[in-house]
Amino acid sequence: MAKSLPPLTWFRAFEAAARNLSFTAAAEEIGLTQSAVSQQVKSLEVRLRVALFIRQARGLSLTDDGRRLLPQVAAALDVLAAATDPFDVGTPENFLTVATSISVAQWVIAPYLPDFTKRHPDIHLRILSATWPDDFHSAQADVEIRFGSQKQVGKNALLLTPNRLIALKSPTLHGNIGNLPLIEAVGTSGGWKAWGETHGGGFHPEFFVDSYGMALNLAVQGNGVALVSELLADHALHKNQLIRAHTASIPGKEGYYLSADESSRPAVLFRDWLLERLSI
């Protein structure tokens, strides 16, 4: 039976932290948060049953076990990098990679994508689903659309609008917010509690999902009223898949932020096209 190995990401976090002697510097290098790097290293230490670092107020130092492990891990990562080199033929001039959540891909990009491909038939598009910082780092995309706050996504990212939360339901569903099941996307700062604080009343969701996209899917099928980003709802509203369950809205404390590689012609064309579509 093959021996079970710790995840590769743990070794990558250890190698970067050991080389920099800093969880913060390692996090910046590999595109994770400092706490994520620290947790991955801790998980590796628990798995190997040894301490790899001495954690001090002014930084890190390697233990004897850490010093023994580092050259072996570094060599293994080098072997993996060399093994993938023959497959890395570079990025073709007209090849475009977009990394974003499934929600954005399904509800914002896909409905209008035929227009983009018609305008730019020479561009070959790849869309990768990405949610966490590590996903975006691995994707190495030309265009990224991330969900979060300005601080989380970086100062050069552009907030996509509209960025308010609205209540939606299926046209076949009769009733109002007060007597219909409520659908909430967890993991965001705004929800039905914030709705009640703004517009009055107590609201208690019956369905909990992990994304606005899933909330929209449930609402389209008549399962209740979803409180979601207006940005994602535009196409469904225009196609009458959904209607407003209430005329009011609340601000979105997080949003969807777009960044594009300015040196990539396809990336710039895609960014400009998407911004144009969202302004219509």
What do these coordinates show?
- This is LysR family transcriptional regulator.
- It comes from Parasedimentitalea maritima.
- The model has no long low-confidence stretch (mean pLDDT 90).
- The protein has a five-stranded mixed β-sheet, with helices on both faces. The chain has a five-stranded mixed β-sheet with strand order 9-8-10-7-11, with helices on both faces. Strands 1-2 form a two-stranded antiparallel ribbon.
- It is α/β, with parallel strands linked by helices and 280 residues long.
- The protein is globular.
- The chain has helices spanning 8-20, 23-30, 34-48, 64-84, 102-109, 113-119, 133-139, 150-153, 192-199, 212-220, 230-238, 265-279, and strands at 53-56, 59-62, 95-100, 124-129, 143-148, 158-159, 164-169, 182-185, 207-209, 225-229, 243-251, 255-260.
- The protein is built from twelve helices and twelve strands.
